[in-house]
Amino acid sequence: MANYLSIKEAMQQGNGSVSIHGWVWRERGSNQLKFLVLRDSTNIIQCVIEKKVVGEEKFAVADKIQIEASIEVHGTIKTEPRAPSGFEIAVKDFNVVGECDTYPITKDQSPEFLLDMRHLWIRSRKMQAILKIRNTVMQAFRNFYLQNSFFEFSPPILQPNQSEGGSTLFEVKYYNDKIFLTQSWQFYAEAAVSGLERLFCISPCFRAEKSKTSRHLSEFWMAEMEQAWIGLPELIDSIEGCIAFIVKEVVEKNPEELKIVGQDIEKLKKITAPFPKITYTEALKILKEKEGMEIEWGKDLRTIEEDALMNHFDRPVIVTNYPKEIMAFYKPADPKDPKTALCVDVLAPEGYGEIVGGSQRDLDVEAMKKFLERDGEKSDNYQWYFDTRIYGKVPHAGYGMGIERVVAWICHLDNIKDAIPFPRTMLRFRP
After folding, report:
1. Which residue, 103, 130, 165, 338, has fewest beta-carbon neighbours within 10 Å?
2. For the segment 61-112, what is each residue's pLDDT rounded down to a tens digit?
3. Has residue 128 been placed in a domain?
4. pLDDT of residue 165
5. Tens digit of pLDDT for each residue in 190-221?
């Protein structure tokens, strides 16, 4: 049995006999020569099949090979500057493993068609590059916190309470009861923080947001952390350190993928901590003075305001102290400015909006109950959560990072749907 190399390994070998296997990415030829550009998960390489080498019968087989057929190739590799990736294999023999009829995806097809065909489009060089970068983003988040003595924690996906607003809950029949798909791990992290002290997770989240924008998904992945004995300043240090580490890892590990998606690597190299820091009130001042946008204090920043604000920054911006009245019940008032909350959002440049949301956590049970009741929630349903304050409370803080939003920003994608293998939105749940 042949010892098959990946295309990357064959190129590293550089010369001599090799055996590879993959899928046909491009094909062209004449009555004497057939040029196949093969791809696998590591790279692409040109393979040249000559009739005089493989014989007339085998060449007739090669002549019928179409894009996306899977084949095994045996031959001799050498450098070839004119080839797509600088190497070429002179084929001595080949075997068609899986034939392919006329492939349905061709050039210049609509984004909606490519979403309908995502089960095939996921093979594309662009999607390969995005998913490799996504892998680096997730591993970098994990490594950043493992290196800082955090524990990876697994929260439940089925949860009895809302954590980010009841209007975006996905309700699930749970035997004879009803339960909800998780919006966030937060409440369970807050329970575990009194045991593990430093913890993180990467897990799916679900929000039934009736939004058709290029920034929203109904099912997405969140990278989250929670830490005991810290407040908002330490949380901000952790956030910007993690983001800078993620970008650095992508720049170092995925330069070729960044080229494929068309991202400027030099621009990403400038994403280093510390980031600019402003308050919500200062953000409104910038919008008024530089964009002519008069925003009433107390209103949340919409996409249009976030985009206008980020016209004045080329790096992520940390925005703190949003109005307490529009924040979730667990975000405490800032003692220095009680009308604002001890919370933080991170906005990405170039129109990618919020990529991180977090806060110090409120320890005042009665204050949290009042906010829940104001919003029509029964505080009794949260007694288990309040127990974490009653029995040995400690100051703690945490945040959530939207994986797809970070990937979309780093890859400079037009739509967040390309930042996840199979997107789920208000209008899309297939394939």
Report:
1. 338
2. 999 999 999 999 999 999 999 999 999 999 999 999 999 999 999 988 999 9
3. yes
4. 66
5. 999 999 999 999 999 999 988 777 788 999 99
| 121-157 tens-digit pLDDT | 999 999 999 999 999 999 999 999 999 999 999 999 9
Q: Which residues fall within 8 angstroms of residue 41, CB to CB, at 6 or more apart?
A: 6, 128
Same domain, 160 and 223: yes
Our count of domains for the chain comes to 2
Closest Cα partner for 84 from 39, 122, 18? 39
Q: Domain of residue 58: give its range.
A: 7-98
Query: What does the alpha-carbon distance between residue 243 and residue 156 come to, in Å, rounded to a whole number?
Result: 26
Residue that finishes a domain, picked among 43, 71, 98: 98
Instruction: From 44, 74, 98, give the residue that closes a domain.
Output: 98
CB 137 within 8 A of CB 131: no
Q: Are 193 and 227 in contact (CB under 8 A)?
A: yes
